[in-house]
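Dear colleagues,

As part of the handover before I leave the project, I'm documenting each prediction I ran so the next person doesn't have to rerun anything. This entry is a single chain, and its sequence is reproduced below.
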Amino acid sequence: MVKALEGRSRKSYAHAMEPEERARLEKLDAIVRSDELHTKIYPIVDRVFTALSQKPEALMTWEPIPLQIFGEGLPPEIRSAWIFVLRAGADTGAERHPNSHQRMMTLHGSGDMKTQSKKGELRIKKDEKGIDWEANVLVSEPGAPLERRWISIPPNVWHRPVVGRDVDWLVISFHTVPAEELIEEKLDESSAGTKQKKYVEGNKK
C-alpha cells in the first residue's frame, strides 16, 4: 500500500521545508540517530511495543520520553518527546494539535502521514470526506533523504497516519508543549464538530 502511494506523494509539509526548519530537523536527526540515544530509549520502545501487543483492540500505543535523556542538544522550543507504535494496517483517523508544532521521524517500518492540503479548506463532516488530503509517505531507511524520514506539522494542521500493512510503524515525535499539556483534537463521530483530550489521559486508542 505504501509503495503504491509513494509515486502519488505531492509536495507538501514533508517536502516544502524552509531553511530554518530544515536546519532544526537536521539537528534533531543527528540526535535521534546517535547510538547513545538508541541505547537510552530502547527500554521505552520495548514497553510501547509490549503495550500494543497486549491491547489487540488498540490502533497505537505511546509513551513520553523524559527530555533529560537528550542532554543539552535539543532546540529550545522542543518541550516534549514521545515514542509511538502504530499497528500495521491501521488508519487512526484525522487529528490535529491546536497548541503544538509536531516534528516526527520514522524509526522502523513505514507509513503515510497524510496532511490537510495547504490549498484546501477543511469542511468538517462526520465521514471526514470534506478534508483534502496530501500524501507524505515516510520510510525508515537510514540513507533516505531527510524529507522521506521526517515531517514537520504546524499547529492546527489536520493529519492522519495510515500505516503500511507489513509491520508496525515506530516513530519518535517532538512537540513544542510539555507532555502534560499536549492536546489532541479529533473529529467527533457523533456530531459535526470536534472533541479534544490530552495525551496524558491515557492510551485509549
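The mean pLDDT is 86. The chain is about 20% helix and 30% strand.

All the best with the project,
I.
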